[in-house]
Amino acid sequence: MEDLFDTVNESDEPLVLVTGRAGAGRTTALAELGTRVREDGGRVSAVRFTARGDVLPLLFRTGATDSVSVPREPTLASFGPVTGARSDQAVAERAAAALLASLQQPGGRSFLLIDDAHWVDPDSLAILSALTRRAASGTIRCVCAVRTPVLEPVASEAVDELRKSGLVRHFRMRPMSRTEIGREVTSTASVLPEPELVDFLHAQSRGVRAAFREAYEHLERLGQVRVVDKRAYLVPAPRAGAPMTRGGITEMCAGLGPSVLGTAEAAAVLAPLGPDMPVLAAEALEVAEEAVIRDLEILRRHGVLHKGADGGWRFVIPQIASSLIAGMGPCTKQQFAAKAVTAVWTGAAVCTDADYLSDRVVDAGKLVDSRRALGHLLRQSTAASEDRMEVALRWLGATVELAENRSQRMMILLTHTAICHSRGKYAESLHGARRLLENFADHLSAGTAQELQAAAVVALGRLARTEPLSTLAEGHHHWPGTPEATLVTRALACGMLDRWAETDRLLAEGAEQWTAGNTTSAMFASLHRSFARLCVGDLRYFETSIEDRAGWPLRTVRRYHAEQVNLHVAGLLTSGELGPAESLLAEEELPEEELHPSSRVMISALKGDIHSATAIARRALAYRSSGGFDAGYSGMHHLLVSMLASCGKFATARQLLANARSTNPVLAHLLDLADAEYDLLLGDPVSAAAKVRAALAYAEARGIVIGLDLVWALLADLTIDLGDRATAERCLADIERLAETTPTVRNIVHALFVRAIVTGDRAAAAECLRRCGERGQPLEQTKIQAKLIKHGVADPDGLSEVYETLGAHGCLLVRARTRSIMRERGIPVPGRQEAVAENEHLLAVLMSEGLSNKQLASALRTSEKSVEGRLSRLASRTGHRSRIELSKALLNGEFETGAPSA
């Protein structure tokens, strides 16, 4: 560590004590110090002491950042116990003189590093004291790592004497701050942790390095760290627990003996019960209270526990308690939990933390009164606020099997299933819906059965369970329910398979049935038929649904109203209709938190706010916060992938695209289109054209029309560049037919665009740009304007406007290409120094995204030799010589751009 190296270098005192709690990083600090000293030409001898009294070489590898088991070169010292040194000062002085002679290095500095010096035996301590006094005016430094609190009074007295003589410099290993924890996560995992994750790690570890590592690794095992776009989020655990290997910070308890470890485990569960904990622990362990108190005192002296003024006990580092609980066997945990619950319920202990008690009730299971447990968990889960819904789900889930009768079990299961579905927990919601539909059909109303069937279909779709969806869509299987529910569920299954023409046909043919049936079925049918008609190109039916929304079934029910608004907004945004979507939201006054994240992302993206769009998307994808049918999922990813690739973030874009495909979303042709734009920006127009054709084939096979304007516009652009005029002309005929039958503004804009680039019609180009300007979508306008200029049907001077807009929105890759085109055409490029800085930053981004030199050359439209030269200059200027280093620097905000000084 740099601070320790500076302290030792600047110290006039011959002895430096490095102190800190167990796991604070003392050994790592010594290893780094030894490495730095050797690099500076100094001589290093290093040993470590053990609790058994052994003296062993301290092994570390030159250049390593932490202690390892195999050294690159041996580090030996003759320091160790000499019999009689403690009782005979002359013996200690002779041993110290011999050690001093062996350590000295002519013309250089020498260091004796001693790890775990709190285990130093009395004879060795006497020699160390004598050595310190002899080295006071020389070039030898002793650096001792000592764990605090120090238990041996003899050692403390010896150090106090040396300190009074001015021979000791103290260096305390400070706890890691939140900032340091964040940087450590980035350094070790190459991700940027979000504030919630950093706060949790800091609270659990209290800044102790080993505890922080244990906490982070345990979160990873539980699946509570989810990474999106190189950002790490703390998310609720998908399961109750996971096996945990005890790390060094927890092994300290085990090293104190089986009895102390057992007491520590009991304390981990029972400590929140305050002063009553010792007697409860004794009862749970079936030992005398005096034995428990003795063990607690041992843990206190070793810095594991703290005893408060009220007699209560708490773990100094909460992660130790968490690790102990995670490492317990299920029976042990259940018994301790039962002891806690019984004590509170009988009045033997007091608990003010309702969450703690609820968790212990769940852990105790059948060892406590089932009826009382059921009542408690139902009250707590019902009263939980929205931000605590994840813990409430655990409590509610435990009550299902505690229910006293079938009706109560059905109601609990229904509530649990609904919450899981609303929070995107599709495996759980599917399991609950199937269980209810198959085992409780006689208890369900027609509307509830329909809602459960719809939830099951959506869950099957989001989990990519295509086989059971196909069985439902073909009518080969259905759940118990009314005929209209069976019809509507079949139509919804077709929709989840992207067979929107079939959805429309089924609902049209069965309209008389579902309009006369239960209101919930009518709501789902009318809503999804409206969206299906939009998908197959009937804009008027969709617009009529919006105009007549006062007649939407069940619109006074909040969740149904939100679902209907969300689906219509998603349809508008996927069609590129930003203004009408925002008007609908304003008129319906839907709170932002009830709008699907995919729609929030598309609104920001269409406005050109890439930062907000990616931030919303990252969090939504990390927390999987979009519950229910999300018609805008593919549209969101199409915009995200296109934007990220335009900024040079290819690896992130590819990851998002792969994740989106894994869920088999509706309107999947938009993912093929995003894939094509990705390849095009990476410099592969042939592959891009093939993927656009795949998108077209997918949509046409299913009768999908929405989004085809994007497909035909990109295909026309690509085929002109590739010399395939015939295909471009067919695209023109198809897109003009689309603009006539489905006259959305975006369809008309793209029809004008294709006419301009295929026929050279500059009037069409001008009208296209005029209409674009009215839409308030800057990135769309910029993309179209640049392509019109490329095809020679718009004024090249417009590239200056394009260039400024790309810069304002952070599209570094496309801006760099535009800069090259401007220079080729003799158009002035403003800000030479700014351009050099942007080129450096773009190269760093592309390199950190993992692109090969060949891909870098393709993306930057240059040669591999040029790329090699630019990489060499970048490494020389910044000092970052690897992709990992660049990635970390970019994440931490440590990468500095700028032209080299003249």
UniProtKB/TrEMBL annotation:
<feature type="domain" description="HTH luxR-type">
    <location>
        <begin position="833"/>
        <end position="890"/>
    </location>
</feature>
<dbReference type="InterPro" id="IPR041664">
    <property type="entry name" value="AAA_16"/>
</dbReference>
<dbReference type="InterPro" id="IPR027417">
    <property type="entry name" value="P-loop_NTPase"/>
</dbReference>
<protein>
    <submittedName>
        <fullName>LuxR family transcriptional regulator</fullName>
    </submittedName>
</protein>
<dbReference type="InterPro" id="IPR011990">
    <property type="entry name" value="TPR-like_helical_dom_sf"/>
</dbReference>
<dbReference type="GO" id="GO:0006355">
    <property type="term" value="P:regulation of DNA-templated transcription"/>
</dbReference>
<dbReference type="InterPro" id="IPR036388">
    <property type="entry name" value="WH-like_DNA-bd_sf"/>
</dbReference>
<dbReference type="InterPro" id="IPR016032">
    <property type="entry name" value="Sig_transdc_resp-reg_C-effctor"/>
</dbReference>
<dbReference type="InterPro" id="IPR000792">
    <property type="entry name" value="Tscrpt_reg_LuxR_C"/>
</dbReference>
<dbReference type="Pfam" id="PF13191">
    <property type="entry name" value="AAA_16"/>
</dbReference>
<dbReference type="GO" id="GO:0003677">
    <property type="term" value="F:DNA binding"/>
</dbReference>
